[in-house]
């Protein structure tokens, strides 16, 4: 029952979200075009359910060919970030196009964040359980590390800092979600995500 309810929730609310947020998304698209030359959207290859690659959508927050200039992890002071990109990342608005991925069934609202293929290749057999569910727009790790860019700020090698400071706990939280997932937990994560972004979450 849970998988059906989860997919129905994803389908209905991604469609509602795309319709309701379309004016905001058009404004963001215009701001990106005015800020720097290049496409509005960033399409990154990520590992989906079962490890199947898919194109994850985001509003572009970096200069063109940023993936060829630096690594996969981004610090708050990364010179590849555009002016508007920093603002979009602060409020997670760059993630809005992923509603399309959710609508298409490539992602879910809640689930472990999708990783680049090179990182998935390094997964241990236990960590590969993360690929047994659809990746999500948000999860416990997204809430815990909502300031990921700030954590990595000042690092000589942001990706190495990510591997040491963030990845272990991120993977642990992801596997915990996979083991305990339920509609109640999904709703709890969604509410806490909104509260975190808006600054209303009560910190323990």
Question: Can you summarize this structure?
Answer:
The chain is mainly alpha-helical and 204 residues long. The chain has ten helices and four strands.
What does this structure look like?
- By secondary structure, this protein is mainly α.
- It has one domain.
- Helices cover 51% and strands 10% of the residues.
- The chain has ten helices and four strands.
- The strands form two sheets. The protein has a two-stranded antiparallel ribbon. Strands 3-4 form a two-stranded parallel ribbon.
- Helix 5 (117-120) links the parallel strand 3 and strand 4.
- The longest helix has 34 residues, at 2-35.
- The mean pLDDT is 94.
Number of domains: 1
Question: Helical segment tally?
Answer: 10
The biggest sheet, with number of strands, parallel, antiparallel or mixed sense and barrel status, is:
2 strands, antiparallel
Structural class: mainly alpha
- Low-confidence parts: none
Give the N-to-C terminal Cα separation.
33 Å
Give the radius of gyration. 16 Å
Approximate helicity band: 40-55%
* Quantity of strands, as a count: 4
- What would you call the shape? globular
Roughly what is the average pLDDT, rounded to an integer?
Answer: 94
Order of secondary-structure elements = HEEHHHEHEHHHHH
- Report the portion of residues in β strands: 5-15%
Biggest sheet, spatial arrangement of strands = 1-2
């Amino acid at each position: 029952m849970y998988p059906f309810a989860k997919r129905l929730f994803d389908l209905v609310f991604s469609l509602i979200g795309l319709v309701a947020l379309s004016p905001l998304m058009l404004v963001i698209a215009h701001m990106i075009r005015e800020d720097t030359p290049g496409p509005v959207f960033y399409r990154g290859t990520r590992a989906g359910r079962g490890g199947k690659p898919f194109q994850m959508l985001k509003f572009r927050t970096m200069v063109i060919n940023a993936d060829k200039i630096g690594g996969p992890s981004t610090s708050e002071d990364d010179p590849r970030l555009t002016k508007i990109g920093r603002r979009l990342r602060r409020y997670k608005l760059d993630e809005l196009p992923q509603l399309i991925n959710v609508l298409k069934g490539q992602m879910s609202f809640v689930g472990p964040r999708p990783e680049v293929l090179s990182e998935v290749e390094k997964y241990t057999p236990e960590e590969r359980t993360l690929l047994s569910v659809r990746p999500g727009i948000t999860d416990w790790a997204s809430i815990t590390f909502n300031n990921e860019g700030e954590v990595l700020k000042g690092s000589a090698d942001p990706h190495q800092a990510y591997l040491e400071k963030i990845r272990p706990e991120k993977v642990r939280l992801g596997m915990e979600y996979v083991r305990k997932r339920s509609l109640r937990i999904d709703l709890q994560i969604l509410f806490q995500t909104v509260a975190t972004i808006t600054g209303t979450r009560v910190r323990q």
